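> Could you send the Methylthioribulose-1-phosphate dehydratase prediction when you get a chance?

Sure thing. Input:
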Amino acid sequence: MNRQQLAQEIIEAGRFLYGRGWSPATSSNYSTRLSADQALLTVSGKHKGQLGPDDVLATDLDGNSLEPGKKPSAETLLHTQLYRWKPEIGAVLHTHSVNATVLSRLTLADSLVFADYELQKAFSGVSTHESQVLVPIFDNDQDIARLAAKVQPWLDEHPDCVGYLIRGHGLYTWGPRMSDALRQVEAFEFLFECELKMLSITQR
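Output:
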C-alpha cells in the first residue's frame, strides 16, 4: 500500500474507534508500517474522530519525525519499538477506553489473564478457548523512553504477546494489517467488559 492508502486506513480506524468510545477526543494514537525502516503515525493532539490526510507523519524506527513542522505523538517510541521487535507487524493501535482504564486500575497485579473465553480465538496465534492470554500491565510513566525500556524485556520474553495495558491509561495492540489490529481491539474490549462485569457480580 502507498502512503495515501495507509493514511486512509489510519483515518478510518480513528473514526471507528472514536465512534465506539474507545478513543475519546485527542487521546490515543495509531500507526502503520510505511516501509522496513519507517512508520506512519498520527500527529500529536488531533481529535481521532476527525483525522485528515495531513494528520499523519512519517518517522524512523527510533521515533524521529521525518517531516519538519509536524510533531509526532509523545508515545511514538512505543509504536516504533513494536515495528523493530517484529518485522511482520504492520499496524499498531493505542486506545483509551473506559473499560481498559478502569480494569487496569482495579487490577493490582502486573498482568491480566484471560482464560476459557471463546473470543480469545480472535487473537493472533490462539486457536482454542482452552488456553490463557496473558496481558501485562505497566505502570503509567510520562517518560516514554523509560516506559519503553520496561516494555521491551517483556516482549522479548513473551514473543506471543498480543497486547499490553498501561495502568490508568489504555491499550496497545498490533497486527500484520490494520484490520488485524482492529479485530484485536474489539476482542480486548469485549474481554475487558466481561471481566469488569464478573468483578461487579462477584464482589457484591
